[in-house]
Design a protein that fits this description.
It is a single chain. The chain is an alpha/beta fold. It has 2 domains: 12-124, 3-Layer(aba) Sandwich (Rossmann fold), CATH 3.40.50.2300; 148-208, Winged helix-like DNA-binding domain superfamily/Winged helix DNA-binding domain (Arc Repressor Mutant, subunit A). 43% of the residues lie in helices and 13% in strands. It has 9 helices and 5 strands. Strands 2-1-3-4-5 form a 5-stranded parallel sheet. α6 crosses α9 (199-208). Pfam families: GerE. It comes from Streptomyces argenteolus. This is LuxR C-terminal-related transcriptional regulator.
C-alpha cells in the first residue's frame, strides 16, 4: 500500500457503504484526492474503517450494519442528513465513532473523521456531543464524586474539559503543555479503566459524576 507522502504513514483503508448509487458516487468523488485514506472493496480488508453514507440514521442500511457488528467490532463514520438524538447512544454503542452532517461532508472533513476513528478517537458535531452527555445510557451515575478506580485525576479532568470544548488532541496537548502522545495515552488509559468506548463517553462520564 502506498504511503501518504506528507505523513509517511500508509493511507487508512475505508470501506464505503452507501444507501444509494448517487450517495456512493458523491462520496467517491469527494474522497478521490484524499491521500490520507484509500477506498477498498474487500469487506474483510484488515483494519478498514466503515464509512456509512445515508440520508437518515434510521435507514435500513444503517440498521443492517449495526446488527452485524459487535461492541468490539470496527468503529464507523456515519455521514447523514438526519439523526434523532434519542438513537445516538445506541449508535455509539453499536460502533459509530464519528458523525458528519452531509452538508459538511467534504473530502477533507470525511478524511478527518476517518483518521480520528482509526486512532481510536471520536469525532462528533458539538450538538450531538451535548445530546450524548444528556442521553447516553449505561454510564455509572453515583450521587457524589466517585473514588478509587472510578475517580479522575486532575490532569484527566483538564483533558476532558478541553475535549468538551471541542479541542483536538494536538490542541489539548498545546494548551496543557504536554506532548500529544501523553494526551493520547492518558485518554486511552482512562477509557480503559472506566470501560468507556469513546472520548464522548468519557466527557459524558465526567459531566455526570460532577468532575466538569
Amino acid at each position: 500500500m502506498l504511503s501518504d507522502a506528507r505523513s509517511g504513514r500508509p493511507p487508512i483503508p475505508v470501506l464505503l457503504h452507501a444507501a444509494d448509487p448517487l450517495s456512493e458516487a458523491g462520496a467517491r468523488a469527494q474522497l478521490a484526492d484524499q491521500k490520507a485514506i484509500v477506498l477498498v472493496d474487500d469487506r474483510s480488508y484488515p483494519g478498514a474503517v466503515p464509512l456509512l453514507v445515508t440520508g437518515s440514521a434510521d435507514d435500513e442500511m444503517v440498521a443492517r450494519w449495526g446488527a452485524g457488528t459487535t461492541p468490539k467490532g470496527p468503529r464507523a463514520v456515519l455521514v447523514t442528513c438526519r439523526l434523532r438524538q434519542s438513537v445516538l447512544p445506541n449508535l455509539v454503542t453499536r460502533g459509530i465513532g464519528a458523525v458528519v452532517w452531509r452538508h459538511d461532508a467534504t473530502g477533507p472533513r470525511m478524511a478527518r473523521a476517518v483518521t480520528a476513528v482509526a486512532r481510536g478517537e471520536a469525532d462528533m458535531p458539538a450538538d450531538l456531543v451535548r445530546a450524548l452527555m444528556d442521553q447516553i445510557s449505561g454510564l455509572p451515575q453515583p450521587a457524589g464524586r466517585p473514588s478509587g478506580t472510578s475517580a479522575l485525576t486532575a490532569r484527566e479532568v483538564n483533558i476532558l474539559r478541553r475535549a468538551a470544548e471541542g479541542d483536538e488532541t494536538g490542541e489539548i496537548a498545546d494548551r496543557l503543555g504536554y506532548s500529544e502522545r501523553t494526551i493520547k495515552r492518558d485518554l486511552h488509559e482512562l477509557m480503559k479503566r472506566l470501560q468507556l468506548r469513546t472520548r464522548a463517553h468519557a466527557v459524558a462520564y465526567a459531566m455526570r459524576t460532577g468532575h466538569l
